[in-house]
Design a protein that fits this description.
The chain is an alpha/beta fold. The chain contains 10 helices and 15 strands. A hairpin with a 2-residue loop joins strand 1 and strand 2. It is globular. It binds zinc ion. The site of zinc ion has 4 residues, from loops.
Length: about 270
């Protein structure tokens, strides 16, 4: 399933696999001035390809290598062999061998699945990607994954935030995420003069800095509570129940890969990153 919308000079593609007549677990790609930011998942790659048929596409940049953000990279590069795919240096082995380097749990295979391999070009922190009318700075923002970057347009104040910021108050976390690095990365982007935020899913935000700052406060307060309870000798299971509340459907769907327990473990530095 694919929905297209426009925000100023930015075209937004919302992409999700259709199951039982509904799009499930949407992710978002953006096209601006010939630069495609992320490419959705493998299931929706043919739809994105059709949508881009008449578009001017010069380069791709990936915010990170989770399979719901790199799904059409390989297909697009196979059709356009000169198409450059920019990504964090740690992303390159995963792009070139997704099946070998990124094991997927059953829920990830169902909703997103492995993409075709692709050939990436590394970008460094603060490197500027030039398009015809814009300059985009790469900002390393690890935490959600080690290879996560945000893309910041220097004049317009646009931030393409990938999965670093999608809003909401987290009560669960992925098994491989690092919550302290997420907080540090959020602080890094909150200091920028942002005007519009384009997240990897969820709605576009105008003037997003206050919302990012309140998310940082929420996450820091949560961390204080968890560390205090841990210092008092409470077990992880008890802290999870006290701080994160009732079990969540996502824990069942992901068989615990995305869970309240992983959020607590990450604050305690006990998550496997
Ligand atoms: Zn992700």
């Amino acid at each position: 399933m694919l929905n297209i919308s426009r925000f100023d000079q930015v075209t937004r593609f919302d992409l999700a696999r259709t199951l039982a007549g509904r799009g499930r677990y949407w992710t978002t790609a953006y096209l601006v001035d010939g630069l495609l930011v992320d490419t959705g998942c493998a299931h929706t790659a043919p739809e994105l390809l059709r949508a881009l048929k008449d578009a001017s596409l010069h380069r791709i940049v990936n915010t990170h290598t989770h399979e719901d953000h790199i799904g059409a990279d390989g297909l697009l590069q196979r059709l356009h062999p000169d198409l450059e795919i920019l990504a964090h240096p740690l992303a390159l082995p995963i792009l070139s061998d997704p099946r070998g380097k990124q094991p997927l749990q059953p829920y990830r295979r169902l909703f997103w699945c492995w993409p075709e391999p692709a050939r990436g070009t590394p970008v460094s922190d603060k490197e500027v990607i030039e398009t015809r009318h814009h300059r985009f700075q790469v900002i390393y923002t690890p935490g959600h994954s080690l290879d996560h970057v945000c893309i910041y347009e220097l004049v317009q104040g646009w931030l393409f935030s990938g999965d670093l910021f999608v809003g909401g108050q987290d009560r669960a976390l992925g098994a491989m995420y690092d919550i302290w690095h997420i907080i540090t990365s959020l602080k890094r982007v909150a200091d920028l003069p942002l005007k519009t935020l384009f997240p990897g899913s969820a709605r576009v935000r105008k003037d997003p800095r206050e919302e990012i700052r309140s998310k940082i406060s929420y996450l820091e307060d949560l961390g204080d509570c968890i560390l205090t309870l841990h210092d008092q000798g409470r077990y992880v299971r008890a802290i999870t129940r006290l701080i994160c509340g009732a079990p969540m459907p996502v824990e069942l769907i992901t068989l615990g890969h995305f869970s309240r327990r992983h959020l607590v473990l990450s604050y305690l530095g006990m998550n496997q990153v």
